Inverse folding.
C-alpha cells in the first residue's frame, strides 16, 4: 500500500505512528514545504528566548523517518490532487501516486492588506522556525530595538515573551478590546494583561492600523507609532485549497470522527480541519497540537485498516478547545466553552472560573495554580453528569475523592 501525507507536523507524525500500528510494510511518503525535520511549533518563542535549541525543538528523534520507513520530501509543494488517478502533482513537475492520502497541511498566517505594508523593510510573521530565524537575524543586526506586534493573541504574546529581553520597547496592538480574546473572558484577560504590562510591554487595544509609511504605523485614531521591526500576528487561515473542489470545505476541511473527508480514500487532520467540539456541539477549527496529533493518529489507523482490511477502526470524537500556556511565569489553562452558570474563585495564586449547565461542565479558565486542571478537562470530555459527583467539592478541591468509589476505581484502572 502507498500512503501519502501532506504535512510534517503533529498531525502528519501522528498519522505515521497510526499507520505503523496496523501496517508495518506499506510505503509512506511525507511531503512538506519546509526544509526541516519535524519540530514543535509552539517552541519557536522559546528558541528566541534561549530556553531551547533547534535540536531540542525536534518533535521526534533524528532516526524517526528511518525507523518508520518513511520517505520525506522536503522543500516540496503539492500543487494539486488528481483524485481519479490518485496522484499528487508536486512542484518541479513530478507526480507521485497514492492509495490513501492524508491532508495535514496546517494553517498559514493571515496578513491583512494594510496600505503601505510593502514600505516596511523589517517585518515578519511568527508561525514557523523560518520566521523565528528571520526575526532572530533582525534582532541581531540592531541595537535599542523597538518592536510593534500586530495581534494580541497567543502568537503575538508568545513572540513578545520571546524577544522581551532583547529589545528596548514592545508595543502590541489589536482590533479587539482585550488580549487573548479567543480564549479568555474580559476579567481573566485583564489579569493576564496586567501581569504582562509589568514587563514594560505596552498595549494598544481596540486599535486599528490605517496604513504604514516605512517604519511608522498610522492608526485610524490618527496616532502614529514608530518602530524598527514589525511582527504580523493577526491570525491564521486553514490551508484548505488542495481540497476546495474535491471534498466538503467550509472554514476548514470537513471530516467525520474517523478523519475521513467526503472524498473516498482522502483523509484530513489537524489545523486545516473542522472538528466537533463536544463541549458545545459545534463543528469548529481547533488549532491545538494535542488534538492534531490524536486526529492524525486516528486518520493513520483508519487509513491502514481500510487499506489492508483488518477490524480495528479508530474514532476521534472527544475534541474540545483547550490551551495550556504561560507568559512570563504566569500559567493558565482554558478548556471548553464559557456558557452557563459560573463558579468563581479568586484568591492568592489561584484564579478559577467553571462554567456549567444542563448537569454538565462546559468549560473553565484557570490562571496561576493549574496543577489539578485535568480533573475538569476529564469532566468536559466525558460529559460526566454533575449529579454523579460531589460537584461542590470538585469546585473547591479538584480530586478523585469527589467521585464515587466505582468511578474512582475505573479511573485508576481497577475496574
Amino acid at each position: 500500500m502507498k500512503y501519502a501525507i501532506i504535512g510534517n507536523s503533529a498531525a502528519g507524525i501522528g498519522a505515521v505512528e497510526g499507520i505503523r500500528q496496523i501496517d508495518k510494510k506499506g510505503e509512506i511518503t511525507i511531503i512538506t514545504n519546509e526544509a526541516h525535520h519535524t519540530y514543535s511549533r509552539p517552541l519557536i518563542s522559546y528558541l528566541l528566548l534561549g530556553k531551547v535549541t533547534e535540536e531540542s525543538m525536534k518533535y521526534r528523534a533524528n532516526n524517526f523517518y528511518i525507523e518508520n520507513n518513511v520517505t520525506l520530501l522536503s522543500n516540496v509543494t503539492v500543487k494539486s490532487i488528481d483524485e481519479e488517478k490518485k496522484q499528487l502533482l508536486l512542484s518541479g513537475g513530478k507526480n507521485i501516486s497514492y492509495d490513501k492520502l492524508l491532508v495535514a497541511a496546517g494553517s498559514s498566517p493571515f496578513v491583512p492588506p494594510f496600505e503601505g505594508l510593502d514600505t516596511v523593510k523589517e517585518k515578519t510573521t511568527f508561525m514557523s522556525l523560518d520566521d523565528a530565524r528571520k526575526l532572530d537575524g533582525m534582532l541581531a543586526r540592531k541595537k535599542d530595538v523597538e518592536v510593534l506586534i500586530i495581534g494580541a493573541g497567543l502568537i503575538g504574546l508568545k513572540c513578545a515573551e520571546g524577544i522581551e529581553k532583547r529589545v528596548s520597547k514592545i508595543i502590541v496592538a489589536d482590533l479587539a478590546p482585550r488580549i487573548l480574546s479567543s480564549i479568555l473572558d474580559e476579567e481573566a484577560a485583564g489579569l493576564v494583561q496586567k501581569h504582562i504590562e509589568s514587563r514594560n510591554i505596552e498595549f494598544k487595544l481596540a486599535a486599528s492600523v490605517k496604513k504604514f509609511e516605512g517604519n511608522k504605523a498610522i492608526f485610524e485614531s490618527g496616532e502614529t507609532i514608530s518602530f524598527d521591526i514589525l511582527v504580523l500576528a493577526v491570525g491564521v487561515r486553514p490551508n484548505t485549497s488542495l481540497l476546495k473542489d474535491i471534498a466538503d470545505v467550509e472554514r476548514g476541511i470537513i471530516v467525520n470522527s474517523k478523519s475521513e473527508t467526503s472524498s473516498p480514500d482522502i483523509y484530513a487532520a489537524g489545523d486545516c480541519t473542522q472538528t466537533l467540539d463536544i463541549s458545545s456541539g459545534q463543528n469548529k477549527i481547533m488549532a491545538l497540537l494535542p488534538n492534531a496529533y490524536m486526529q492524525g493518529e486516528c486518520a493513520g489507523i483508519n487509513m491502514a485498516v481500510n487499506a489492508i482490511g483488518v477490524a480495528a477502526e479508530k474514532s476521534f470524537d472527544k475534541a474540545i478547545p483547550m490551551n495550556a500556556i504561560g507568559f512570563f511565569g504566569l500559567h493558565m489553562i482554558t478548556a471548553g466553552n464559557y456558557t452557563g452558570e459560573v463558579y468563581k474563585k479568586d484568591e492568592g495564586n489561584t484564579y478559577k472560573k467553571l462554567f456549567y449547565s444542563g448537569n454538565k461542565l462546559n468549560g473553565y479558565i484557570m490562571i496561576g495554580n493549574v496543577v489539578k486542571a485535568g480533573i475538569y478537562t476529564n469532566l468536559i470530555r466525558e460529559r460526566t453528569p454533575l449529579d454523579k459527583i460531589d460537584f461542590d467539592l470538585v469546585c473547591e478541591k479538584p480530586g478523585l475523592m469527589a467521585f464515587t468509589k466505582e468511578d474512582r476505581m475505573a479511573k485508576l484502572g481497577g475496574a
Q: What stands out?
A: The first strand starts at residue 2 and ends at 6. The mean pLDDT is 93.
